[in-house]
Amino acid sequence: MTAVLVVFAGKNGGTREIAEVIATELRAQELRVDVRDAADVAGVEEYAAVVLGSALYYSRWRPEAVRLLERHVDDLRERPVWLFHSGPCGPGAALVQVSLPAKVAFLAAQIDAERTATFGGRLDPARARGLIARFMASGRRAGDFRDWDLIRAWARDVGRRVRTRVLL
Ligand SMILES: Cc1cc2nc3c(=O)[nH]c(=O)nc-3n(C[C@H](O)[C@H](O)[C@H](O)COP(=O)(O)O)c2cc1C
User: Is 116 helix (H, G, I), strand (E, B) or coil?
Assistant: First the structure.
């Protein structure tokens, strides 16, 4: 069965939950899926396709996601790769499209990754550690802005493309 690796990088679990929902949709298309934290990925050789997503912090991807792209650029180039990031919170979050940070855009171009999806994020005041995080998680930005219908639809589309691009 075709194997897909879904990798996430985040700090507070919001991006991991997105990765798990993506994996559920891919499994529904009879793909074999592993979900891994970017920090735990030793290699991608055994997978036919990769989905990689990071939380956005200070307009950057998490370092473990960037490291994964850097370390495995040659192997990633040889298989289809879909990228997403999660972050925008507050009113209108659903409409925000965030460009890839420059370093990630450079790596994405090297591996010829598919166009990046932006998903809303979650700012939970109860999880906020530190002054800036507490400020970020206050007011109208506080809450869960992940659009599960959008995420599921994107994942279904990725699944269809994996099935057509990779011989089953
Ligand atoms: C200190 C801090 C900085 C953040 N910076 C950004 C940012 O630059 N752009 C953005 O879209 N979201 C930003 N966010 C929102 C996070 O990306 C969002 O909360 C995301 O869902 C976190 O994912 P995680 O739970 O997997 O860590 C920031 C959040 C915090 C607490």
Answer: coil
Mean pLDDT across the chain: 94
| Residue with CA at minimum distance from ligand 1 atom 30 | 133
> For 17-30, what is the mean pLDDT?
97
User: Is 3-165 a domain of CATH 3.50.50.60?
Assistant: no
- Closest Cα to atom 4 of ligand 1: 57
Ligand 1 binding pocket, CB closer than 6 Å: 10-15, 55-59, 86-89, 98, 121-123, 132-133, 136
pLDDT digits (tens, 9 = 90+) for 158-168: 999 999 987 65
By the 8 A CB rule, do 6 and 26 touch?
A: yes
- The domain spans of the chain are 3-165
